[in-house]
Design a protein that fits this description.
This protein is α/β, with parallel strands linked by helices. It is about 35% helix and about 15% strand. A 14-stranded mixed beta sheet has the order 1-2-3-4-5-6-7-8-9-10-11-12-14-13. Helix 15 links the parallel strand 11 and strand 12.
């Protein structure tokens, strides 16, 4: 590094303190630039870098300007030239197809060059977040953007893709995903599962964690059958999608599943109570620990009974606003042998009246239970049962008690 005029460490600390941005998610460009001035400045400035401030590029919306895109490449390249290599700390990058980068007034080729150069300067980059908007540059901007992403494919382990609602699929996105052989995590928002995308996802056989937010996931079960290592599946407000085939594929192909979250189904209104393939998931996925289902008409009393009978590994069970679940005396849960000793969190808000005998059964069979949420009932007596074993009602209506020490049930 070159030598700069001597400035006392105390003065440098005051300078660097002023350079730290107020936004905790903002990349510390000014601090990085100043720290590259000389060894003394680097020694003082390095204190203001921690893992978080160096890990994420363009995480803050304030950082997503064309000027900062160019500045990022220049600073990381200079850091590497000086042997400091700040880029080795970068793990995650948020790339946006915006007018600032690819719009009418920006230079496509410069943006492409910057984005394509960053992987060589950030060798440990494994997490890529793409926001695929529709800039003024149109199709040319899209093709340029995808061309610049090619260097990222080899090491990507986690991929988040968000699109504008109902926008057309981006060309070549499926080709990029097909080359991401290390991919373990995907998070798609507003995505339309085209045949090309499905074919690409089938090749990513190492996928373990999946989130679909408001996506048209028709035929997604064709991918699931190729993901035997799947650990977590979250489906939120799937658009115009019938998910029963998805659950059937999970039950058949994903024995290692540990978490399943399904909220706000849009196409399941016609399902009769307890006529859902989620029963098969309970029966076949013996390692399932977390089950969260919200507002599902196909979840009824038989499903609750099946969860208590088959959910031996369950630690968290939520059946929220599932109107067909009955917790009163004489319901299906009373006729099965419970086998859920590890259950810690039970949420049945919106599932009707709660019988005292049900609460007694929970406390008797689920010794580790430390969080319970039921709908409020006037004149209910079950709160007394919870208070007797140290549960305390919070302001949110959820009952909690200290975590119970592990009990050996074997």
């Amino acid at each position: 590094m070159p030598q700069a005029p001597y400035v006392s460490p105390e003065v440098l600390e005051a300078i660097f303190e002023l350079l730290v941005p107020d936004d905790k998610d903002a990349f510390r460009y000014d601090v990085l630039a100043a720290s590259l001035t000389c060894r003394l400045w680097y020694a003082v400035g390095s204190y203001y870098f921690n893992d978080k401030s160096l890990q994420n590029l363009f995480e803050s919306t304030d950082n997503r300007s064309h000027a900062n895109l160019v500045r990022t490449r220049l600073l990381l390249a200079e850091s590497q030239r000086l042997g400091v290599c700040h880029g080795r700390h970068v793990k995650r990058i948020h790339l946006c197809m915006t007018n600032a980068w690819f719009g009418r007034n920006s230079d496509h080729s410069e943006a492409v060059d910057c984005i394509a150069d960053i992987p060589a300067l950030t060798p440990n980059l494994t997490d890529v977040r793409l926001h695929l908007g529709v800039p003024h540059g149109g199709l040319e901007a899209r093709l340029s953007f995808h061309e610049s992403l090619k260097p990222y494919c080899a090491n990507v382990e986690r991929l988040h893709v968000g699109m504008k609602l109902f926008s057309a699929p981006h060309q070549k996105l499926a080709d990029l995903i097909a080359d991401m052989h290390k991919l373990t995590t995907i998070d798609f928002m507003y995505m339309d599962f085209t045949p090309e995308l499905l074919d690409a996802l089938k090749k990513c056989t190492g996928i373990k964690y999946v989130t679909f937010n408001r996506a048209r996931i028709r035929d997604a079960h064709l991918c699931i059958s190729h993901w035997p290592s799947l650990r977590s599946l979250e489906v939120n407000a799937a658009l115009r999608t019938y998910c029963e085939e998805l659950w059937e594929a999970v039950a058949k192909s994903c024995p290692l599943l540990r978490e399943l979250i399904y909220t706000d189904p849009s196409n399941d209104e016609y399902l009769l109570p307890d006529k859902t393939q989620l029963f098969e998931v309970l029966a076949k996925c013996s390692k399932l620990k977390v089950l969260y289902v919200k507002a599902h008409p196909g979840i009824g009393s038989e499903f609750l009974a099946a969860a208590m009978r088959d959910g031996r590994a369950l630690t968290h069970l939520t059946l929220r606003n599932c109107k067909n679940v009955v917790i009163e005396r004489g319901a299906a849960w009373e006729t099965v042998e419970w086998s859920c000793p590890w259950l810690e969190d039970l949420d049945l808000i919106g599932c009707g009246l709660v019988a005292d005998v049900f609460v007694e059964r929970v406390l008797e069979r689920c010794r580790r239970i430390c969080k319970i949420a039921f709908s409020e009932e006037r004149d209910a007596t079950w709160p007394v049962l919870l208070e007797a074993v140290d549960f305390v009602r919070g302001t949110d209506g959820v009952w909690k008690r200290p975590v119970v020490e592990e009990v050996d049930y074997y």
